[in-house]
Amino acid sequence: MDKTWNNKGWFMVLPVLLLVAFNAIVPLMTVVNYSVQETFGDNVFFFHGVGWFQDVLHSDRFHDALGRQLAFTAIILVIQVPLGVAIALTMPRKGVWVSVCLVLMALPLLIPWNVVGAIWNILALPDIGLLGRGLNALGFDYNYTRQPFDAWFTLILMDVWHWTSLVVLLAYAGLISIPDAYYQAAKIDGASRFAVFRYIQLPKMKRVLTIAILLRFMDSFMIYTEPAVLTGGGPGNSTTLLSIDLVKIALGQFDLGPAAAMSIIYFLIVLFLSWVFYTLMMRNEAQS
């Protein structure tokens, strides 16, 4: 019996297709178009091939920005994931303090990114900021506006303060989803606190931790507003991450071709590393 196809259903998804095309495909194709063209002004363009891609990939400036970006991402992941899990383990599972803890954890996530940058910019000022003045009073020679190490310290501290809560909330959601039967069995077997964490809680949190790591990885590569407000990429170029360097090329220098090529390379790096992260963390999932 021949199956009758009703093509009217395509009209139902047409608005979604148009919305996706407007939001994603059209901007992406515009960037691709600029990445293979050159212009000398007067809105006249000519084909440049993959020249801009070769220039960006061989650029020391791009390599330096990518190195700073990878270092920033590695540092915040190493700090935020264990710290978030540790805080989630100490949070209560029942009672009125559950709501209090959850609200307190969610507060940093509700603050707009530019406000976070402004808060830490003022807080870390060496002359009048609570953090900057306090560190100098303790004998540290702290000045994040002049010293690259201090700028990195402040940038990392700000990101940890802002985003560790996300890891806490995800890890906590994974913890409270573990049935009590697992804990009762561990108690009967006389398992230690570390054994419970190692063989029950950590495996059960694997999926949410995978999501947390992927989200923080992608967010760290897309971070712009907070470091731009806090340090502006300085002192010098010491905190110029990929996003800040891209904006400088695109809007500061108005080099549309190199900026478009860098945008595509930037996107492919994030896509590739996210795939590597996900594959490595879920490679044993199908067997378990």
Write the layout of secondary structure elements.
Layout: H1 9-35, E1 37-39, E2 45-47, H2 51-57, H3 60-90, H4 97-110, H5 113-123, H6 130-137, H7 148-176, H8 180-189, H9 193-204, H10 206-222, H11 225-230, H12 242-252, H13 256-282
Antiparallel strand pairs: 1-2
InterPro entries: MetI-like, MetI-like_sf, Sugar_ABC_transporter
Domain ABC transmembrane type-1: 66-277
Family: Belongs to the binding-protein-dependent transport system permease family.
Q: What do you see in this structure?
A:
With 288 residues, the protein is mostly helical. The chain has one domain: MetI-like (MetI-like fold), CATH 1.10.3720.10. 73% of the residues lie in helices and 2% in strands. The chain has 13 helices and two strands, in the order αββαααααααααααα. α3 packs antiparallel against α10, α7 packs antiparallel against α10 and α10 packs antiparallel against α13. The longest helix has 31 residues.
Please provide the count of β strands. 2
- Classified by CATH, the class is Mainly Alpha
As laid out across the biggest beta sheet, the strand order is: 1-2
Under CATH, the topology is which? MetI-like fold
Question: What labels describe this entry?
Answer:
single chain; 288 residues; mainly alpha; MetI-like fold; two-stranded antiparallel sheet; 2 strands; 73% helix; 2% strand; MetI-like_sf; membrane; MetI-like; transmembrane
How do you describe this structure in short?
Keywords: Membrane, Transmembrane, Transmembrane helix, Transport. It is found in: Cell membrane. The chain is mainly α and 288 residues long.
